[in-house]
Amino acid sequence: MSQKNETTVLVLALLITVALIAGGYWWFTKRSGVDIGSLGKPNSNNSSSPAQNNQSTQPPQSTGENFAQLQNVPSGLFNYGGSTSWAPIRLAVDPAIQVARPEFRLRYVQPSGVAASSGAGIKMLIDGRLTFSQSSRPILDSEYQQAQQRGFSLQQIPIALDGLAVAVNPNLNIPGLTLEQLKSIYTGKTLNWKELGGPDVPIKPFSRPLQAGGTVELFVEEILGGSGQKFSSNVEFVPTTTQALSKLAGSLGGIYFASAPEVVPQCTVKPLPLGREAGKFVPPYQEPFVPLQNCPGKRNQLNIDAFQNGQYPITRNLFVVLKQNGQSDEQAGKAYANLLLTSQGQELISKAGFVKIR
């Protein structure tokens, strides 16, 4: 074979080889979904700022059927505290945990000098006075920053759904309120029920103080429009929900908001349907409404479906808040949250009047 022919054959062989390699590369990347050019490079999809990592909310996980089956529950005495909205859960769930897991001892700790609240509990957690805390609102950016200054991060784990319910005197004839009307009441723009289609009766709004915790903070954020908004001077601040409901029962023009399980089953006040738009009201209770004269033999129940599907306009998560420090505090906080997320824990939460999250 001449040198010219040999050269031609070699060039053709080289071109065929390059074509085969290029074809193989194309087939591999299309069929496998692998970007070969990205191999060995940092994965930008998995990188995030420390703030993003710290502010994640862990989704609920399937953790077993009952307390006895749960793994990784530490032994010892663990202090906890926080939100007053959690009180029915503490009463219903925690004694059952103590029976099933006596090695996991729980002690509720009241704050000193201030009322118990979500914020007070998180502050005690950051200060090292609690192992974990209970909150009816998400962690604030300022709280994340305070924890980082102490050398650890915070995590919030949702365990139940709750809603804010608005209550009025049972003799007040009003079909419901929009969120905008509710805002106008608590900012002092609407002063008489006749302005909202009700009787000619002055409105008397009640609230717990802002420092009372997560429920009031959520109301300010979601209804009033943020921390820059203030309650009207005609709002009367009452220390506890029990006292507020008592005042409401004796005031025809009264109105008050609180956690739905604290309002809906009551025998002396009437929970109001709420809506994002006029005429589209959603009740916080299951219809038909149980007349209050039938109470306490029969009580109104939470409108669970409306809470779960988002039709009811003011809902929230309840959280277990814990330290992410790789120590026993973190293990105990995760164990407590996982106990509440078992089937047994979720059923007890439901019996306490809250909505199961799984």
Summarize the structure.
With 358 residues, the protein is of the alpha/beta class.
What does it look like?
This protein is an alpha/beta fold and 358 residues long. It has 2 domains: 56-162 and 316-356, Periplasmic binding protein-like II (D-Maltodextrin-Binding Protein, domain 2); 163-315, Periplasmic binding protein-like II (D-Maltodextrin-Binding Protein, domain 2, 3-Layer(aba) Sandwich), CATH 3.40.190. Helices cover 35% and strands 18% of the residues. The protein contains 12 helices and 12 strands. It has helices at 3-32, 50-54, 87-100, 118-126, 141-149, 179-186, 214-224, 241-249, 260-263, 304-309, 328-340, 343-351; strands at residues 76-82, 104-108, 132-135, 153-168, 177-178, 204-207, 236-237, 254-259, 270-272, 274-275, 315-324, 355-356. The strands form 2 sheets. Strands 1, 2, 3, 4, 6, 7, 8, 9, 11 and 12 form a 10-stranded mixed sheet that branches. A two-stranded parallel sheet has the order 5-10. α3 links the parallel β1 (76-82) and β2 (104-108). The protein is globular, with a radius of gyration of 28 Å. The protein starts with a helix and ends with a strand. Residues 1-56 have low confidence and may be disordered.
Q: Compute the number of strand runs.
A: 12
Q: Radius of gyration, rounded?
A: 28 Å
Shape: globular
Poorly predicted parts: 1-56
